[in-house]
Amino acid sequence: MASFDLNALSGINAASNGLATISNNLANAQTVGFKSSRAEFADLFSGSQNSPGNGVMVESYTQDFGQGTINGTGRDLDFAIDGEGFFVLNDASNKYPNVYTRNGSFKLDKDGFITDQSGNELQGYLLDQTVSSEAVPVFETTLRSVNLANLNRIPKATDEMGYDINLNGGIGINVDTNGSGVADPGAIGRANLLKLVNFEDGGNVSNDSYNGTVDFSISKDIYDTLGGEHRLTTNFYKRDVVSVVNSGNDYNGDGVNDKYSSWIVQYTLQDHNAETDTYSTSGHVANATGALLDATGAPVTTPAPAGTDRIEGQIFELRFNTDGTLVDVLTPNSVAAPVGVAVTNNSLPGADWTSTGLNASLNWVIDTPFSGANDPLGNSQSTAVNINIDFNKMTQYAGSNSAKGVTQNGFKIGDLVGLNTGFDGTIEARYSNGRSISVAKLGLGNFSDKNSLEKLGGQTYAESFGSGSAQLGSPQSNGLGEIRSGSLEYSNVDTTGELVNMIQTQRTYQASAQVISTSQTLFQTVLNL
Question: Is the pTM of this model over 0.85?
């Protein structure tokens, strides 16, 4: 009869553990990232194979890692995984290399790291600043903590620009319509007019600016080393259509000189005076060492006094072939006195101009700033603002001037104002300086045997020998799920199913208790014989 009691007692213990599991599931029915469990029972058997058995035991507790309900929250730092995988966290206790969770409720700590509510830092693939461009972000291949604090706290000086502009090829040659004070007025290709395009009325030299109408002009704000804004104005002038006879250049490699259209592009730099709401010239051309150049092309070793004429414009020639594509960019060998030629000889001599492919380089000293500058004191020996210009997307088709875009990679200081996270886990940060850049891609981990993970509480797990090594990757790759930003994955507990299981387990508990009661009655009967 004692075996009755022991078997029934094991049933009570097993049912009690089953009820505890159900109770835990129901208690966490609204817990973010929680995965339900079930108690799995196994019979106990020993001795003769004809014996009824020795009762029951809880063999294991198995978690259901199935998908939970994803609900939108609208919060930038709430992430849900739709599919396989766990968020990877750096363990704040340093007990484990990493911990893993499906709870995507994150926050920013005081240092700018994305962490869970317990302070574990979210891991991701950070932006590789050395090889990334504005248009094509490239991410590192090693997981690191994602930090958003300092990415735009340090301003960046503009050092790259790109032009995607169509110049109207159907217009005529640009001429100096005024001609006042010009000995030989006419097309901009002439030597004296090219020199004037290098200047605005910045000094006491009379008539030192070109009087012709600009064919197309566009302005773009650029930034210096302190994050100060400066307006860079780009003016385009159609110089000429150069015939095959006068070309002297074979651009398609067929051994025959090619006809091309020639444009002059002029750059000037201005600062905005907030008090007067006006712009005035603030940037002047520098030489290779950063020194300011005067009107003769000689370095200015001290800040130039008022009334001194300095080189205020930098010019290049753009050449387009007969199908409208850009084939060459040339820069004058003398920035002080670029050599032009008469209208009857339309080519610009190679000895005086140098081809730079489809790129060019701007070199400026900012010596009269109204906003922050690379040298706010106006030292003409300050480090120059150097900008590489990419003209690859320039075209010249007849019809109209059209600017699809002018890009530059500088920015002023900014504060984080929001995040956008894509399905592939790419985090795009929005800053108060108007920039929106990809800063990291979330990392996910998965395991061969998730039920062998070490359970740490707080919906976090640690790798164990039984789980196998973490299989790391980015969302939407290698079978890993995708990220739903502004959402959370809630518990996958089926409340109705758990209540049904509770009733069944309760009956098992009651039946086992009844067996013990019956055993006691039988034992008492024997004693009364």
Answer: no
